[in-house]
Write a structure and sequence with these properties.
Strand 3 (63-75) and strand 4 form a beta hairpin. The chain is globular. It has a single domain (2-200), classed as Ribonuclease H-like superfamily/Ribonuclease H (Nucleotidyltransferase, domain 5, 2-Layer Sandwich), CATH 3.30.420.10. The protein has helices at residues 2-18, 96-99, 117-127, 147-152, 154-165, 177-200; strands at residues 23-34, 54-58, 63-75, 80-87, 106-109, 129-132. With 214 residues, it is an alpha/beta fold. The protein has 6 helices and 6 strands.
């Protein structure tokens, strides 16, 4: 229940920013539970079968890892609209199934990991979500993704970097999946709270995370 309440608080804070947003960015980052060599004997987060971590591949680091994947949708200004966890082996594109219950009537910007004509059509028809991803150069009717979209995609990578550097989101010593999830959500909620204070109390750049809030 703690994780549920944390996510509810985060969502309410984010709604003050994202109420009228119609452009969002989707992305994912790796969350390692333990080193790959220890994965077979590790008991971390194995309290429930449905939440078992597993082995996955990180294209950005060109390496395999053991744990989970954090999926997220953020606004152009840098506010997390939605977050979710999945085992590491789950492909990014499957998160698009959950997005339909979280946002609608907008443009969603992603990388090539979300390239799928089937999912693009389904999102548009069911929720009026226009999914825009870079095309492969050998595709028919190839066009380059607009520069502003390519630049905007970096916003979610910056957020992930802030979570790693300032909030040490990958340093998680929980033994159960619920504990692991609660710690992840607490750090994301802390980031959103600081952004809220920056905007509505001090009227400054919401992404000045290192600045004192006292």
């Amino acid at each position: 229940m703690q994780a549920h309440h944390l996510d509810s608080i985060r969502a309410k804070l984010a709604s003050r920013f994202n109420k009228f947003e119609d452009y969002f960015i989707v992305g994912s980052m790796t969350l390692e539970v333990c080193k790959l060599s220890r994965s077979n004997c590790s008991r971390i987060c194995k309290d429930n079968l449905y939440s078992y971590p597993d082995k996955g591949y990180c294209a950005a680091q060109n390496s395999n890892y053991y744990g989970y994947k954090l999926h997220a949708v953020c606004s152009l200004s840098g506010l997390f609209q939605a977050v979710d966890l999945s085992p590491a082996s789950v492909h990014d594109i499957h998160y698009l199934k959950d997005i339909k219950t979280q946002i609608r009537d907008c443009t969603l910007i992603g990388n090539k990991g979300y390239l799928s004509t089937k999912f693009q059509l389904n999102l548009f028809e069911s929720c009026n979500i226009r999914l825009d991803t870079p095309m492969r150069t050998n595709q028919h009717y190839y066009r380059k993704q607009p520069y502003l979209f390519r630049k905007s995609r970096k916003r979610i990578e910056t957020l992930f970097s802030q979570l790693c550097d300032q909030f040490m989101i990958r340093r998680n010593y929980a033994k159960s999946f619920l504990g692991f999830k609660t710690r992840i959500l607490s750090k994301i909620t802390a980031l959103t709270t600081i952004q809220y204070i920056n905007k509505f109390i001090f009227n400054r750049n919401i992404n000045n995370i290192k600045i004192s809030i006292i």
